[in-house]
């Protein structure tokens, strides 16, 4: 049995360049009888290695390397599982180690006895021992420490006195001895990449002396020619190693139902009760249609074994809703389930919106259900904690993700190791991207080759942003675990591995927009229930038509804003369609859809399916429409139709052709014309890849509409919450200030006696938080809050007296220029003059002390300082002199979208350049109603050059149509009298 037990894969992060797939390929090509993996203290590769073993038809031996403390020294052990029973113990051992780094060997003895242990010959603990007797005693002591027959020794790739001692001990004490040539890269050519990879952590290049290159079967036998019997030991120990791990089944946790009631009956009872509550608010509903659909769904759910799954989701959604945690209206295909709607899991009526259950669960497609839930981002963890405590800490785990080395981003790391200047590394990367790399520049070529060799290797673990695994079993015995975020444990395996093993994954997603909705409702003292918001509110649709969509979920991007203005939505279905269309593929149909929406005539595909496409004006937008066409035209059941839709959308030509033949045949049997069937199938094929999940689109359109409604009717509160969430993003705040201005809402700067970390709403006025000031974060604001308590600061001296132990002069200066101290009645010049903390206090000894109020700084100084603390201007936005001149010369305010502008302002910066034709022109920064960039072309420059030094000028300018930003071309300049 030839092979090595000591291969380290890519999951020995930053310690191997051997990717798993490449490893198995090499082993197969090199005549190996097995692959033995021993990654560094983890089993991240477990599932993938077992699946690759099946694919390449070469056995795998699963192991890992552990470094454990033995009498204050670290000893490396190779731990293996020689069968399925030992694999369970190995998994548990890995979990114990990963969940508690402080464990010592005594804490692990019970599990170490249950696996196969190997003591490698090469490791630091033996390196400095020159006395053979001492070395023997040390090795024997370690062996006796773990009394098990499954503890042997190994010889690695270097043979010396240590190897001889290991051989003698194995022979004398009848211990097995195995060949464990350590392999961490594919060939000797990759050694340099490996050395650099290992050096990245310490940013210092260290070349490893020993070779850890992959060897073929012949090379391995040659290496161990004097110890050939070790391969026989390997065969006796691992020759029959197999695992049933990938073929296990794992049960869902059982929901604790009412005594003497099954999960099936309990789910049915809850659903029927929920349906009655839902229908009591719907006068138009046909009870029979709902009842028939509900019974059908319950039957499918029970047949597929998901009664407990629905009850578990219902339970934690109920917990959220009864504990002041908002739950999203739905996400994905789950919104097509009436059971989910009746249980309160979703808020979308699937019958009202013509949604198909089969898009979610399909009796013919045995996949796990996928109900993803949205919660406010700051409350998501509370729901996970509830689930963890209900089902047990080792039954609920998060999921590992891996950050990998990207070629471009890792080049700078590699360049540091290779002592290449960062500027040169950037230049090499740029030339490589542009396909201009000089093949004779060996340093550059070397850098690129090394970066390519480590590209895609895992760099570090992370946590899946939403996925949670819930299982009936104690997961520590079934999947390797590690420490996760907060108190929740984490699987060492990725989501794809866990789903392939049959574990139930539920996505708990944190959505900032739900937090915004929740906070707006709180500010307004919960004036309305979200479920009571009318979907036909004219003022809400007017807000959308106006493109006033800042902060509106899914609608606030620039492109979406332009599209929604063109569409002019006036009904809920318009928003549903918009969300489905505004994606890279179907975007090409947006203009055609909008034209048809506004009355453009179109020709339908066929009367038999016109009703299906009528709501979308003859364009297939939704996946559910494809399913309906397959059902209506060819008689496929919805379950069959979903499978066909999925197959077509994968773009596999053979599948598309075979399904086409079947569709035409079934259509013909259904009394339809074959030529027409071909035409309709071609349309389905064209749209299958573009088709969007209508259930998801309806649910997210509902969330978008709810936000638009709240913004329409509670605008000041909405904007306050929205701006609080981006208080330290000066660009967004500046943009949102324009929205405030257009809606007649004033924004006041921070106030030291009122402001904290949120915008305050006072009627149609917002007061900015202290966190909007650069350099003042939430922790400092909290300290100011404690100092302020219930007693406002009386004056500047009182403020300094109470804050001198907390604030430094730089922070106070920022507070001064942010206007936060304006309430003390002093000019900013006075506040700055009296800034020193070291000089305050004497005032209390002078009875008639009165602060001197200095003459204020001029406008430009105050404007500059205000900009420094905010990144934009609030009070000093418009120069008072410019305002006076506007009145004097009857100049009207302009908007940035205006094509032609006549205005008065101040030239604040001039950049003169020479064109290629040796002519002079200028770029000018100009301050008026806005600060804009003006272009003075050569002829105009020659005419108006002398006016560029004037303090204030009147300009006539036109929009520069070649650019999308606020650039204008100067047509005329004239001097104005101040």
From TrEMBL:
<dbReference type="Pfam" id="PF14579">
    <property type="entry name" value="HHH_6"/>
</dbReference>
<keyword id="KW-0235">DNA replication</keyword>
<dbReference type="InterPro" id="IPR040982">
    <property type="entry name" value="DNA_pol3_finger"/>
</dbReference>
<keyword id="KW-0548">Nucleotidyltransferase</keyword>
<feature type="domain" description="Polymerase/histidinol phosphatase N-terminal">
    <location>
        <begin position="3"/>
        <end position="70"/>
    </location>
</feature>
<dbReference type="InterPro" id="IPR004013">
    <property type="entry name" value="PHP_dom"/>
</dbReference>
<dbReference type="GO" id="GO:0003887">
    <property type="term" value="F:DNA-directed DNA polymerase activity"/>
</dbReference>
<dbReference type="InterPro" id="IPR003141">
    <property type="entry name" value="Pol/His_phosphatase_N"/>
</dbReference>
<keyword id="KW-0239">DNA-directed DNA polymerase</keyword>
<dbReference type="Pfam" id="PF17657">
    <property type="entry name" value="DNA_pol3_finger"/>
</dbReference>
<dbReference type="GO" id="GO:0008408">
    <property type="term" value="F:3'-5' exonuclease activity"/>
</dbReference>
<dbReference type="Pfam" id="PF07733">
    <property type="entry name" value="DNA_pol3_alpha"/>
</dbReference>
<dbReference type="GO" id="GO:0006260">
    <property type="term" value="P:DNA replication"/>
</dbReference>
<protein>
    <recommendedName>
        <fullName>DNA-directed DNA polymerase</fullName>
        <ecNumber>2.7.7.7</ecNumber>
    </recommendedName>
</protein>
<dbReference type="InterPro" id="IPR004805">
    <property type="entry name" value="DnaE2/DnaE/PolC"/>
</dbReference>
<dbReference type="InterPro" id="IPR029460">
    <property type="entry name" value="DNAPol_HHH"/>
</dbReference>
<dbReference type="InterPro" id="IPR011708">
    <property type="entry name" value="DNA_pol3_alpha_NTPase_dom"/>
</dbReference>
<keyword id="KW-0808">Transferase</keyword>
<dbReference type="InterPro" id="IPR016195">
    <property type="entry name" value="Pol/histidinol_Pase-like"/>
</dbReference>
<dbReference type="Pfam" id="PF02811">
    <property type="entry name" value="PHP"/>
</dbReference>
């Amino acid at each position: 049995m030839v092979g090595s037990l000591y291969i380290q894969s890519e999951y020995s992060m930053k310690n191997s360049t051997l990717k798993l797939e490449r490893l198995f390929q090499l082993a197969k090509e090199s005549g190996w009888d097995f692959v033995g993996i021993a990654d560094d203290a983890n089993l991240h590769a477990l599932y993938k290695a077992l699946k690759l073993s099946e694919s390449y038809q070469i056995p795998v031996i699963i192991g890992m390397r552990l470094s454990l403390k033995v009498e204050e020294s670290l000893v490396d052990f190779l731990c293996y599982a020689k069968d399925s029973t030992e694999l369970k113990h190995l998994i548990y051992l890995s979990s114990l180690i990963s969940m508690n780094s402080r464990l010592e060997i005594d804490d692990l003895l019970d599990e170490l006895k249950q696996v196969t242990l190997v003591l490698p010959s090469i490791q630091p603990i033996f390196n400095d021992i020159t006395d053979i007797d001492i070395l023997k005693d040390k090795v024997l002591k370690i062996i006796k420490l773990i009394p098990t027959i499954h503890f042997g020794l190994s010889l690695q790739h270097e043979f010396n006195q240590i190897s001889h001692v290991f051989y003698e001990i194995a022979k004398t004490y009848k211990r097995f001895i195995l060949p464990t040539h350590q392999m961490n890269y594919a060939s000797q050519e990759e050694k340099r990449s490996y050395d650099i990879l290992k050096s990245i952590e310490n940013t210092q290049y260290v070349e490893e002396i020993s070779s850890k290159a992959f060897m073929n079967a012949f090379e391995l036998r040659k290496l161990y020619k004097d110890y050939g019997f070790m391969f026989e030991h390997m065969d006796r120990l691992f020759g029959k190693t197999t695992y049933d791990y990938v073929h296990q089944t794992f049960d869902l946790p059982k929901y604790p139902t009412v005594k003497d009631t099954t999960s099936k009956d309990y789910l049915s009872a809850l659903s029927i009760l929920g349906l009655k509550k839902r229908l009591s608010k719907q006068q138009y509903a046909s009870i029979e249609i709902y009842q028939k659909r509900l019974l059908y769904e319950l039957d499918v759910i029970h047949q597929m074994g998901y009664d407990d799954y629905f009850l578990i989701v219902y339970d934690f959604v109920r917990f959220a809703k009864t504990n002041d945690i908002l739950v999203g209206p739905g996400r994905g295909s789950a919104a097509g389930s009436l059971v989910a709607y009746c249980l309160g899991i979703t808020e979308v009526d699937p019958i009202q919106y013509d949604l198909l259950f089969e898009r979610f669960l399909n009796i013919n497609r045995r996949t796990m259900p996928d109900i993803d839930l949205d919660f406010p981002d700051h409350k998501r963890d509370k729901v996970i904690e509830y689930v963890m405590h209900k089902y047990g800490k080792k039954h609920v785990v998060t999921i590992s993700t891996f950050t990998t080395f990207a070629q471009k981003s890792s080049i700078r790391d590699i360049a540091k190791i290779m002592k290449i200047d960062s500027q040169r590394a950037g230049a090499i990367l740029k030339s490589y991207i542009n396909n201009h790399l000089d093949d004779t520049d060996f340093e550059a070529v070397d850098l690129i080759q090394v970066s390519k060799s480590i590209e895609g290797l895992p760099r570090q673990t992370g946590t899946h942003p939403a996925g949670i695994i819930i299982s009936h079993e104690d997961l520590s015995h079934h999947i390797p675990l590690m420490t996760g975020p907060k108190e929740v444990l984490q699987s060492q395996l990725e989501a794809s591995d866990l789903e392939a093993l049959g574990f139930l994954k539920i996505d708990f997603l944190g959505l900032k927009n739900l937090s915004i909705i929740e906070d707006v409702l709180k500010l307004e003292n919960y004036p309305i229930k979200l479920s009571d918001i009318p979907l036909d509110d004219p003022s809400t649709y007017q807000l959308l038509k106006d493109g006033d969509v800042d902060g509106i979920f899914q609608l606030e991007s620039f492109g979406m804003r332009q599209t929604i203005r063109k569409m002019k939505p006036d009904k809920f279905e318009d928003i549903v369609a918009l969300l489905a269309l505004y994606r890279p593929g179907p975007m090409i149909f947006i203009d055609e859809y909008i034209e048809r929406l506004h009355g453009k005539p179109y020709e339908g595909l066929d009367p038999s399916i016109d009703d299906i496409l009528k709501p979308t004006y003859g364009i297939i937008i939704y996946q559910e429409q494809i399913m309906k066409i397959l059902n209506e035209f060819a008689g496929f059941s919805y379950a069959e139709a979903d499978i066909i839709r999925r197959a077509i959308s994968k773009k596999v030509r053979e599948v598309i052709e075979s399904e086409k033949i079947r569709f035409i045949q079934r259509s013909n049997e259904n009394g339809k014309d074959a030529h027409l069937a071909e035409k309709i199938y071609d349309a389905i094929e064209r749209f299958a890849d573009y088709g969007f999940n209508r259930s998801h689109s309806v649910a997210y359109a509902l969330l978008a509409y709810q936000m638009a409604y709240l913004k329409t009717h509670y605008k000041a509160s909405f904007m306050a919450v929205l701006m609080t969430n981006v208080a330290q993003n000066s660009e967004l705040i500046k943009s949102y200030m324009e929205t405030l201005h257009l809606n007649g809402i004033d924004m006041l700067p921070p106030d030291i006696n009122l402001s904290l970390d949120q915008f305050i709403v006072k009627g149609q006025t917002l007061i900015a938080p202290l966190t909007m000031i650069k350099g003042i974060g939430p922790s400092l604001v909290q300290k100011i809050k404690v100092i302020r308590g219930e007693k406002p600061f009386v004056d500047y001296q009182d403020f300094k007296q109470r804050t001198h132990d907390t604030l430094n002069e730089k922070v106070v200066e920022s507070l001064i220029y942010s206007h936060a101290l304006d309430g003390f009645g002093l000019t900013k010049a006075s506040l700055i003059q009296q800034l020193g903390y070291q000089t305050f206090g004497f005032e209390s000894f002078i009875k008639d002390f009165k602060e001197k109020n200095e003459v204020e700084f001029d406008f430009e100084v105050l404007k500059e300082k205000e900009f420094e603390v905010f990144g934009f201007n609030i009070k000093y936005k418009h120069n008072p002199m410019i305002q006076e001149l506007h009145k004097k010369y009857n100049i009207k305010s302009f908007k940035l979208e205006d094509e032609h502008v006549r205005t008065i302002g101040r030239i604040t910066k001039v950049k003169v350049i020479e064109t290629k034709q040796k002519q002079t022109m200028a770029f000018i920064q100009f301050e008026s109603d806005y600060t804009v960039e003006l272009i003075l072309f050569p002829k105009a420059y020659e005419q108006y050059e002398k006016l560029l030094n004037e303090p204030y000028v009147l300009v006539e300018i036109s929009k520069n149509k070649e650019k999308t930003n606020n650039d204008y071309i100067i047509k005329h300049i004239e001097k104005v009298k101040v």
